[in-house]
User: What shape does this take?
Amino acid sequence: MNTKEAPKNKKRIAAVDILIVILLLLCIAGIGVRIFIGEGNLFHKGDTGEYIVSYLISGEQDDYSSLFSEGCEFYLEDGSYFGTLTGNAAFTPALLSSENSRGEYVTVYATDGTVDIRGTMTVNGSMTESGFVLNSKTYISPNMTLTVSSSDITVKMLITDIAKAQ
Assistant: This one.
């Protein structure tokens, strides 16, 4: 009789297996560095709080003054809250540009009752390196036009400035 046992198959760790484990650990470490101390702060919310957004609405009727008084709330197109007006808006005659007979552009004030509306509103969001994020989901920036609405009116609002509220 043969008293020798059959050799057991030993599991070996190949160099490829070690390389895969090292790469996996490096990926996890890279994600951790990016989250906590990375220059881009991919998941960093930024400076969260209350901000003042300055706006301009062009070419509206001058009888809208009651719709742009302090405390009026505005919402974005998707129904999410945008902000609350911080004071009564300033109404100035709308500036109209047209070309005259000599091919020159001339700017004049409107005489048909249309006005430009300027004001500020309080919004909540985060200022990040790449811009302002409103309500953790909507990016806004100066020179961006948004369609906003209150309970009484829908307008196109040009964002002119975003600053931290004091």
Q: What stands out?
A: Residues 15-36 form the longest helix (22 residues). Residues 13-44 form one domain. The radius of gyration is 30 Å.
